[in-house]
Design a protein that fits this description.
Helices cover 22% and strands 44% of the residues. It is α+β, with helices and mostly antiparallel strands and 336 residues long. A hairpin with a 4-residue loop joins strand 6 and strand 7.
């Protein structure tokens, strides 16, 4: 009996030692992975800092805490940002599945101004088992405030939930550099949207799209990566875009890319309902639309009513929005 007790104690001791060794090994590998990611981000012209990095959670969890995580990206659309704290956690038994939490506020700066973003919760996960990570994140109770004068129209913008997921496209061959992007915004309110739609109802939108040749834009300044992606034949296949606010609804699908001036370009099939007030605010010309209605056999229906509850071909070309052959006054801005 004493012999078996001794053997049991030794077995437990060896198991504990092995488990501790595994924990510290995973902790070391995780720290190395973070350092490598920071170095990779430098090649994309994004410089990250993680003050007071702590590794804890022994023996069953691996937890990495980073106080005041911040980044700078002089050539990017968002030039700097800093949050209060980032916490990432993984189980020793499943180190490839990493959960994370970000505590705000998040202070952002662009060429146009600054803003502060707050939220009730901001959580996400990263699965690193595949060559292309599967990343998802969601924020609840989002509020944009403390915006500078340049962003004053978006100050106090709110959303009950914002969710984003980027993953390898499941219907594409491995290594094809195709990524599936899905996003959703629910319960959003802001003065610009209320003015455009003529309604104070909450705004909701969902997007499902495949980004082709995503891996071609892996390094360099933001503008360089955009150009490399576009020149390699990169494009966005919009499977479904839905936007709703009150009685207004828009559904779209199609292909988009960038032209030589980094403006969105491509064709979409769009169906709109309850949008007469929006079209009138955009000052779409009613006479050409009425002529187009007659050519289509729509009788006396003209102006914005022609577009109501119809599937229409929209084209973004040379910085302009076209409805069929008709050029609208809507100007498509440069991405950068």
């Amino acid at each position: 009996m004493r012999k078996w007790a001794t053997v049991s104690v030794i077995a437990v001791a060896l198991s504990a030692t092995g488990w501790a060794g595994a924990w510290f090994l995973i902790a070391q590998k995780s720290a190395e992975a973070v350092d490598k990611w920071i170095e990779d981000e430098k090649s994309r012209d994004r410089l990250w800092t993680c003050a007071s990095r702590h590794t804890e959670g022994f023996p069953f969890q691996l937890r990495l805490r980073c106080d005041t995580p911040s980044f700078t990206s002089p050539t990017g659309p968002i030039q700097s940002g800093v949050a209060q704290r980032l916490t990432a956690e993984a189980s020793v038994s499943s180190p490839f599945q990493i959960g994370f939490k970000i505590e705000g506020p998040l202070k952002l700066a662009t060429r146009s101004g600054t803003a502060s973003v707050r939220w009730n919760s901001f959580i996400g996960s990263i699965n690193t088992r595949a060559a292309t990570p599967d990343i998802s994140m969601s924020a609840h109770g989002v509020l944009v405030d403390e915006a500078s004068a340049d962003f004053s129209s978006w100050a106090r913008a709110r959303a009950s939930e914002v969710a984003i997921r980027v993953q390898p496209s499941p219907d594409r061959a491995p290594g094809s550099n195709a990524q599936l992007l899905t996003t959703s915004v629910d319960g959003m309110s802001s003065s610009p949207l209320d003015t455009l739609f003529g309604s104070a109802d909450p705004f909701r939108t969902t997007l499902s799209a495949i980004i082709l040749n995503a891996g071609s834009a892996s390094s360099g300044a933001f503008a360089e990566r955009l150009d490399r992606w576009s020149e390699s034949g990169g494009r966005v296949q919009v499977g479904s875009l839905i936007a709703e606010k009150g009685a207004s609804r828009l559904e779209a699908s199609g292909d988009l890319t960038l032209d030589d001036r980094r403006r969105p370009s491509g064709k979409l099939s769009v169906r709109m309902t309850g949008v007469q007030s929006i079209l009138s605010r955009l000052n779409l010309p009613s006479a050409p639309l009425a002529i187009e209605g007659l050519l289509r056999g729509s009788g006396s229906r003209g102006g914005a009513s022609l577009l109501e509850n119809r599937t229409l071909p929209l084209e973004l070309r040379a910085g302009r929005l076209y409805i069929g052959p008709l050029r609208t006054p809507v100007v498509i801005p440069l991405l950068i």
